[in-house]
Amino acid sequence: MSIRENIHNYYEKMVTETLAEKYQNESDDPEFLADVACVALNHLPPRYFRHEIDMAFYLSPTEHHEMDKKIQKAIGEALQYVRKSKRDRLE
């Protein structure tokens, strides 16, 4: 296994899961959610881990809640940005 396969960004996992769960029907454009994910992730700090259990075990409930709030904020802002960019391109 390569190093690349052994490291993961916790925010990447959480953003993509949130988008898949809550925003799957947001657009007919298949690239829309990928664009939203990229914009949101660019506004979140990286939080790397090797084993998912590490994040679950070492995060306090307060940290987890704060991370969730950051994710929701970043996704909300990214949705607005991507929607506006898409409208601007259509005009």
Q: In a few lines, what is going on in this structure?
A:
By secondary structure, the protein is mainly α.
How would you describe the overall organization of this protein?
The chain is mainly alpha-helical and 91 residues long. The chain has one domain (3-90). 70% of the residues lie in helices and 4% in strands. The chain is built from five helices and two strands; from the N terminus they run H-E-H-H-E-H-H. It has helices at residues 3-6, 10-22, 32-41, 52-58, 61-90; strands at residues 8-9, 48-49. It has a two-stranded antiparallel ribbon with strand order 1-2. Helix 2 runs antiparallel to helix 3 and helix 2 (10-22) crosses helix 5. The radius of gyration is 15 Å and the shape is globular. It starts with a helix and ends with a helix. The relative contact order is 0.18. The model has no long low-confidence stretch (mean pLDDT 88).
In helices, the fraction of residues equals over 70%
The shape, in one word, is globular
- Strand order across the biggest sheet? 1-2
What's the pLDDT, averaged over the residues?
Answer: 88
| Beta-strand residue fraction | under 5%
Please count the helical segments: 5
- Count of all domains: 1
Break the fold down into its secondary structure elements and pairings.
Elements: H1 3-6, E1 8-9, H2 10-22, H3 32-41, E2 48-49, H4 52-58, H5 61-90
Antiparallel strand pairs: 1-2
Helix pairs in contact: 2-3, 2-5, 3-5
